[in-house]
Amino acid sequence: MRLKGWTFRTGVAYDPTPVRTQYRVPAVPDNDRFWLSAGVGYELHDAWKFSLSYAHEFIKDADSALRPSATAPEAIKGNLIGKYTGSVDIVAAQVVYRF
């Protein structure tokens, strides 16, 4: 939507995870997530443009059920059974000068 130099943006996204429960590790406790975002931009004149945006990720709670096989080198590390929770906030700003 534009209104005399102003631009308004919104968005929603669904991002399914490729990681299955039996392979989820603490370093990357990924799971399905929904994104909501909003942004505003203002073009002062042809040379200057300013933008600000915000996004929030709602991440579904993730279970971990790592059980290494008895013959794998990781067998001595044991099992990792647990649950992860999380969310992400992203803020971005931009200034453009054209010459």
Automatic annotation (TrEMBL):
Record-linked SUPFAM superfamilies: Porins
This protein's UniProt keywords: Cell outer membrane, Membrane, Signal, Transmembrane, Transmembrane beta strand
GO cellular component: cell outer membrane
The keyword Cell membrane is assigned to this record: no
Topology in the lipid bilayer: Multi-pass membrane protein
Cellular localization per UniProt: Cell outer membrane
Pfam families xref list: Toluene_X
Entry's Gene Ontology molecular function annotations: long-chain fatty acid transporting porin activity
Primary location: membrane
Family recorded in the similarity comment: Belongs to the OmpP1/FadL family.
Protein name: Long-chain fatty acid transport protein
